[in-house]
Amino acid sequence: MTEIDTSVPHSARIWNYWLGGKDNYPVDEAAGDAYTAVFPGIVTIARSSRAFLGRGIRYLVNEGGVRQFLDVGTGLPTVDNTHEVAQRLAPESRIVYVDNDPLVLAHARALLTSTPEGVTAYEDLSLYEPETILEAASRTLDLSRPTALILSGILGHVADYDRARELVRRLLDGLPSGSYLCVNDGSRGTDPDYENAQDSYNETGAVPYFLRPVDKIEAFFEGLELIEPGVVSVPLWRPDPADQEPRPIGQHGGVGRKP
C-alpha cells in the first residue's frame, strides 16, 4: 500500500478540515488556517459545495427516480456522503465510489457502509481512465439503467480544459438515456478574493485546482437537458426553504439529464 505522507499538507485533508471532519493532521490544519486567513469564505465554499451535492442527490432520487450513482473523485468521507443521502431516501440505491488517492483509499471503509437493500463499492481508479471506470462500475451497477454521474469538485484538478470536457463526455457515453450528470466546481467571475487566494495557493507547489468561468462549467453539460435553474452559484440551486436569502459564491453547479 502506498505510504501516506503526513509531513506535507494534502488538499483532500484540508477540505476535510474545512468541512469539520477529523481525517486531517496539524500540517493540514495549518495550511487550511493560512488559506482562511487570506480568504475566510473558503469554509463557506466547502460547506456549500457539500450542501449542493446533498440537494442534487435528493432531486435525483425523489424527482429523477435514480437508484444508481457513480461518484468519481470521491474525496475523504465526511457527513452526508452520496450513499448516505441516497439510501436514506431509497434504501435500495447502489453507489460506486471512484478515487485513486491512497489517503481516500485508506478511509474507504467509511464509504462502504450500506443499507441491507442497497450496495456501495469503492474502485481505486483515476478520472483519467473513463472506460476502465465504466467497466469496474458495471460489476456493481446495471449500466443499461439510468445512472447519476457525480463529479463534485474534481474537474478543477484537470489543468487542460478540453481534456476535462473529453473525460466527462467519455464517462457519459457509457451511460444510457435517462442518466444524469451532477457537477459543481470552483468558478471565476463572482468572488475576486477567492480567485486571488486560489491562484496564490496554486503557486505554492501544492496540487493545483483551477477555477473556471461559468460558461466553461456550463459546457460540461453540452448535449444534456439542464434541470432548472440551470448552472448557478451552488447556494442558489434549489435552496432549502430554511436557507433564507442565499448569496452567490465562487462555486457553480448544476444537474443535467441525458436525452
UniProtKB/TrEMBL annotation:
Q: Where is this region: Disordered?
A: 238-259
Asked if Methyltransferase is a keyword of the record, the answer is yes
> Which biological processes are named by the entry's GO terms?
methylation
Under SUPFAM superfamilies, the record lists:
S-adenosyl-L-methionine-dependent methyltransferases
Q: Which Pfam families match?
A: Methyltransf_19
GO MF annotations in UniProt: methyltransferase activity
In its keyword annotation, does this UniProt entry include Cell cycle? Answer: no
Keywords recorded for this protein, A-Z: Methyltransferase, Transferase
Q: What is the recorded name of this protein?
A: SAM-dependent methyltransferase
What's the source species' lineage?
Answer: Bacteria, Bacillati, Actinomycetota, Actinomycetes, Kitasatosporales
